[in-house]
Amino acid sequence: MGENYQLILDQILEGIQAEGRTPRLLLHSCCGPCSTYVLDYLSDYFEITVYYYNPNIYPKEEYDFREAEQEDLIRRLPSKYPIHFQRATYDPEDYYQKIRGHEGDPERGDRCSLCYRLRLEEAARWAKEGGYDYFTTTLSLSPHKDAQRLNAIGRDLEEEYGVAYLYSDFKKRNGFKRSKEMTDEYGMYRQDYCGCLFSYQARRAHEAERIRQDKERRGGRWPGHLSMMKTWIQDNQEKIFDKVALIYKILAVISGIGMALKILSVLGIGLVGTIVSFGLFLPIAGVMAVLAIPIILVLFGIRVFLFWMAGRSAQALPLKADRLQQFAGILLVFAIIGFLFSGDSSFNRTMALAEVIFHGFILYALSVTRGEGPNSGDDPYRRPL
Length: 385
Ligand code: SF4
Description:
The chain is mainly alpha-helical. It has helices at residues 5-19, 32-42, 60-76, 92-98, 110-130, 147-161, 175-185, 197-217, 226-235, 237-278, 284-315, 321-340, 346-369; strands at 24-28, 47-52, 83-87, 134-137, 164-165. The chain contains 13 helices and five strands. The protein has a five-stranded parallel sheet with strand order 3-2-1-4-5, sandwiched between helices. Bound molecules: iron/sulfur cluster (SF4).
């Protein structure tokens, strides 16, 4: 049985309050979701600078997403004392050099200890340079991170760098549960693997195995049932949404061409009608054409806009997931109305139905690719933070 670092933290916080001061804390953060609870908790006592130093994260796009989510959270989170953000340079070589020889270690093994030390040491160095009163990390929030190991590293670095380490075990007192709730409240992106290439591969291998077993159980039928469809979508989300982005953009172009053809035909009818009726001084068709064009522009224009924006949002996932959901939802309503009023034309009916299914699929795919992550389930592979 190791130390209870939450109790040690309680004592430090009591001391700070008794002295009536607001120390400066450099908080190393691994990601936005883990920092939710920690920031909410500690910003009542400290002026915090969140230090985002995570060269372990693979790939670069994932690193950028997590960083953007971290900054966004800081902007939106109400706090008693100011919270600042400090980004570090992303150089994965720092990480690969540090863990060399331990690439094959299991998660929570020596590779992870080296990874904790790398990030904490950089935080200690930065805290020393910046004259901070304390430094610490969000890492102890996860049930899959060993608080004893983390705090032991913190103690070593405290001695080495001469900056006080803020001992902590944020998972105590329901910190982890609260972080899950806050992540939902803020609609944040939640990754489904710890961060490095090796945890990414472990996660993918685990998913592949799940699919294989599921297929076996179902006698090889695919997709067979919703849960397999869900797994398939989650495992191929990047490819699926790349295609979705392309399809939406193609639909925007087709709708744009449709709009132009409609306008040309209305102008043609109007012109012919005007010539025919001109002798009678009744250019009714021409007037009708002029009136019809703005209506066509609005009706078709909205669809072109929605298709195009949906395509752009799909391209920028997962950051633009909310946007895509809104655009796909509106397009689904349009498609349902289109289906209901498609008349006797079987071509129109089929096209409208295909559109309903397409938008419906996207909404379903979004719902199963969000909220799946390290903070979301009981499966240890899903939350190895
Ligand atoms: S699994 Fe997580 S803690 Fe362990 S080495 Fe990879 S990124 Fe670091």
